Amino acid sequence: MTIRVGPWSVRLAPRALAVSAALVVIACAVTVAAISTGEFTVPVPDIVSALFGQGTPVAELIVSKLRAPRVVTGLLVGAAFGVSGAIFQSLTRNPLGSPDFIGLTAGASTGGIVAVVAGGSALTIAGGALAGCVVTAALVYAMAFRGGVQGYRLVLVGIGANALLLAVNSYLLTRADINDAATAGSWLTGSLSGRGWDHAVPVALALAVLLPVCAFVARPMRMIEMGDDAAKAMGIRVEVVRAAAITVGVLLSGVATAAAGPVVFVALAAPQLARRLTRSPGVTMGASALMGAVLLTAADLAAQRVLAPTQLPVGVLTAAIGGTYLALLLRKDRR
After folding, report:
1. Residue 202: count of CB within 10 angstroms of its CB
2. How far is CA 54 from the centre of its chain?
3. In angstroms, what CA-CA distances link 8 with 11, 61, 211, 287?
4. Among candidates 299, 325, 250, which has minimal Cα distance to 96?
5. 334: how many CB neighbours lie within 10 A of its CB?
6. pLDDT digits (tens, 9 = 90+) for 255-285
7. 40: number of CA atoms within 13 Å, CB side?
8. What's the average pLDDT block by block, 10 residues per block, for the chain (335 residues)?
């Protein structure tokens, strides 16, 4: 199905639209469940009243200052991880080509740990994570560049950088003060606990700026998936598109990690799950963003409720689910 508006046209797949609509409904249901349930139950009508400042003081405190910011941060961070993973899996043409495996998450972790050891504030830790992610991406890109960047070379260099950075992170933790090491260890798990609007707003602004760029390069990226030579023959400036896409993917991954810590496997699993549901020949940005948002918020809701009153960091649950998914993925590829 093609929609034309003046000189612009957009091709839409009915199945992808149906899957995206279903994911939106699931995200709304998870959002309502996360805000209304817990030690203090808030009925749905009271949630709406509290959001518009018409509820009781207790309901407004729970909804507007505690639960809603956490859920919104989870939706935005999950969407950012989903799009970032889709970008790198498309560029590398490899389902393992996600920020978790090519060193970006480990680089962000290094920046965050350095900030913690230096006694930085929460804002400094977020800045350190973003800077670590950007620096790591620049180094990986430079080392993988040989007259251009091929997907398999980017993955191989990224895996090597990831292993090196994990060793650096372990070394930094062993040399840190015990209190700093405990703080860094907690941050490294990845959590949405205590997240407020000051965490959600930067991620929302980053998505507002970067998603249009992502939409602009999505079509040429599809052509690059057919091979650099074929893309160049169709007039695509391969390295320009690739550099722009990598920049967007790195910034999304860095901002998401700065807000919630290095939550693993969302960027890996979301694009592949979305591709299988939509039956698309390649990863799709919109469905990947929605899938990432659903995965992270649903995992965070389960982390809060399954072992209540004990609450797990969401990173523990995503790691458990992602490890199972990775094992299934490797088993399928082996066949």
Report:
1. 17
2. 34
3. 10, 46, 18, 22
4. 325
5. 6
6. 999 888 888 888 888 998 898 888 887 778 8
7. 10
8. 64 83 95 88 84 82 88 95 92 82 86 83 83 90 80 84 90 83 81 88 93 87 81 83 89 90 87 87 86 93 82 84 73 63
Which residue in this structure is represented by tokens 């997907």?
151
The model's pTM = 0.90
What span, in angstroms and rounded, lies between the C-alpha atoms of 100 and 136? 12
SS (H, E, C) 112-151: HHHHHHCCCCHHHHHHHHHHHHHHHHHHHHHHHCCCCCCH
Q: Write the pLDDT tens digit of every residue in 27-50.
A: 999 999 999 988 888 888 888 888
Can you read off the two tokens belonging to residue 196? 């407020």
Helix, strand, coil share of the chain (percent; to 5): 75, 0, 20
Q: Which residues pair with 2 in a beta bridge?
A: 11
Q: How far is it, in rounded angstroms, from Cα 12 to Cα 239? A: 27
In whole angstroms, how large is the CA radius of gyration of the chain? 20
Place of tokens 């260099």: 157
